[in-house]
Amino acid sequence: MSALTPQTVIAVVGTGAMGAGIAQVAAAAGHVVKLLDNRPGAAQLAVDGIRSQFAKMAEKGRLTATAAEAAGQRLIAVDQAADLADAGLVVEAIVENLEAKQKLYADLESIVSDDCIFGTNTSSISVTAIGAALKHPERLAGLHFFNPAPLMALVEIVSGLATDRTVADTLFATAAAWGKTPVHARSTPGFIVNRVARPYYAEALRLAQEGAADYATIDAVMRDAGGFRMGPFELMDMIGHDVNFAVTNSVWRAFYNDPRFLPSLLQQELVDAGFYGKKNGRGFYDYRDGAGKPAAQTETAQTPAGKITIHGESTAPQGDFFQGAAEALVSRLQDSQLSFSRAPAEDGRVASIGRAVLYVTDGRSATQRAAESGIANTLLIDLALDYEQATRIAVAAAEQCEAAAAAAGIALLQAAGFAVSRFRDIPGLAVMRTVAMLANEAADAVNQGVCSASAADQAMRLGVNYPRGPLAWADQVGVDVIRDVLANLGASYGEDRYRISPLLQRAVFAGRKIHD
């Protein structure tokens, strides 16, 4: 399907930050763009702001002065819906209210041509429901940009139940022609990104509620070990808890109170207190004048004491993943010039020092694993995006673990160059449980026909800047490892929240990767 040609007039209704950003993208791509807003003067203000952005781009050499001037001249502020009669695409970026969106498009149906496409930028409302008020719902699809629209690459093309496939394909091609990376999605709560991202917040909130570590430490582990651009608490503070909590509630209710999306009482308290985050000075962190951001808790540097052994290839089915963690330790210890020996793998262990034995978490607590294995001095290390490059790692010791053994295990990791954050012994630690839940939710979205596996991964990398797509991450770690982590979390908590996606189960049973 071909993209809309540059000769097609684009209309943008609603000229706040998102609407103005979409208008800027369309004008830069060569379209005449008409802007309409029900607030007097708002459309012209948006035009002036976009022209200023084009001028700044010319100053920085990202556009020629001629191109910037031409793009600015393609922007037209209009005062009434009748002025949009010649539009080939009407994008709405108005208030997130079903009735308002339905009325807007129902009114426009009598103004625009029969082949005009409607593209709603809704992030949370059913495209099917918006279309239900139209005489021709087949012309409507979601055209969901991410903020700021000129900078963010992802666009979700969302098909409602009545959406004509040619309409969705035309929008897909048009978004690509505008320099964006579009992905197809079916209209279900949260589409792709706002659904799959929920565990990034939910698991962090649960960790905090259970006292695993403080906010700054969890954030640091997710950044420095997990490779995420922002930790979950600083990200929620940036988004705003009024917004983030509302989205979580919306998705939870839309899925008929599925426990996977259960809102957090911790975040509810912030909303009740009016602590919305950076926007008003207080959230998980204090942003008021003079308040400093707390540092992550890091174990005091210690010198390793005891014989160090790095264990070889495991005979377990998931041996490749654990072997990778062991080999990263080998590389890092060689750089530190610390002596160690090699030994065959036993029961998935990665390393030992003195009486301490280190494993990568499999979703059980260290205390449970110690009880089941009979190895009291058990320490668990968290998942890392790249064990060779990570600068920090989370660790937990079993309650049975001797203090000296815990200190020795931590000293070993420090000698390998990690800043070590010791967590309370919580199942799955931070990165592992979060990645497992992200992969599980993405797998369920694919299993339910919301999107393809490649679209899920693209959406999460480009829409929320994840360092790796959740399903690609599951393939890299091992779908059997992710399955086991989820099963162990489910057994630990006794909650349906951690039920395993059928798609993930099938991949394990078939002995294949999700992307095979």
UniProtKB/TrEMBL annotation:
Q: Which InterPro entries match?
A: 3-OHacyl-CoA_DH_CS, 3-OHacyl-CoA_DH_NAD-bd, 3-OHacyl-CoA_DH_PaaH, 3HC_DH_C, 3HCDH_RFF, 6-PGluconate_DH-like_C_sf, 6PGD_dom2, NAD(P)-bd_dom_sf
Which intervals hold domain 3-hydroxybutyryl-CoA dehydrogenase reduced Rossmann-fold? 358-427
Which keywords are on file for this protein?
Answer: Oxidoreductase
Which residues, if any, are the signal sequence?
none
Entry's Gene Ontology BP terms: fatty acid metabolic process; phenylacetate catabolic process
Cite a single GO MF annotation.
Answer: NAD+ binding
Q: Which residues form the 3-hydroxyacyl-CoA dehydrogenase C-terminal domain?
A: 190-287, 428-512
Does the record carry Cell membrane as a key word? no
| Domain 3-hydroxyacyl-CoA dehydrogenase NAD binding: from-to ranges | 10-186
Q: Which NCBIfam families match?
A: PaaC-3OHAcCoADH, PRK08268.1
- Family of this protein: Belongs to the 3-hydroxyacyl-CoA dehydrogenase family.
Protein name (record): 3-hydroxyacyl-CoA dehydrogenase PaaC
